[in-house]
Amino acid sequence: MAKVSIIIPFYNCAYVDKAIESALNQTYQDKEVIVVNDGSINHTERITPYLDRIIYIQKENGGTASALNAGLRAATGKYFSWLSSDDLYLPQKVEKQVQVLESLNACVSYMNYYLIDERGKVISQPAGIGFPLVSQFIHKMRRGCIINGCTVMVRMDVFQEFGYFNESLLYTQDYDFWLRILTKHSFHYISEPLVYYRVHGEMGTKKHRKSIPQEILQTKNRHRASTNAAFKAAIEAEIKSGKLKS
């Protein structure tokens, strides 16, 4: 089996125990769960019952990207899977995603997901979006991030190829990384929703909603040339293969 490293960045989150349980309860057996405490002072006691079943890293606060990178440096798996401390995996998430990546010999996949509220109640229809053509996916990604980071699985050698998450970015470290790797690797979409994305008052996208748009714009502009080239190459390949009419 291909080992999967599930990395959970944690900063003062009251839901972290639920996230850890969902990672440990995966049907896929060959896994390690790495929890990175990014300078938390609250809710750390929720991790204590799991210390003998996880890899626990404590560090000074540096943001989500630095926590993910700390986990990546400690990881020993073939695949990386990110789980935010307020979100949940359904039991077969890792198993089904590994099956897809292994069967296609692919590097990266993302999947469908549900929104849940503070109590864990599903409050949406499946919220993910897939595309039949690579060019359509790239076109959407040039406009904004349509990927939920906690639905993604990435082969570890991709980080050797493109580097780690950009720690200078407070909010768009995931979007920045996806834009880097889509220039070379296809994102394979799994339509089955196997992740719960929690919507609550303390989530970062709500607390920092005034600051995020500017960083998104800067990230798009920084990758504009490379994503434009990738879009053009995808169009040409699809015309050549007959998937798209000229």
UniProtKB/TrEMBL annotation:
Official protein name in the record: Glycosyltransferase 2-like domain-containing protein
Gene3D superfamilies on file: Spore Coat Polysaccharide Biosynthesis Protein SpsA, Chain A
The Glycosyltransferase 2-like domain, residue ranges: 5-129
InterPro entries in the record: Glyco_trans_2-like (IPR001173), Nucleotide-diphossugar_trans (IPR029044)
GO molecular function: hexosyltransferase activity
Matches recorded under PANTHER family: GLYCOSYLTRANSFERASE, UDP-GLCNAC:BETAGAL BETA-1,3-N-ACETYLGLUCOSAMINYLTRANSFERASE-LIKE PROTEIN 1
Species for this entry: Fictibacillus aquaticus
Family the UniProt entry places it in: Belongs to the glycosyltransferase 2 family.
Domain of life: Bacteria
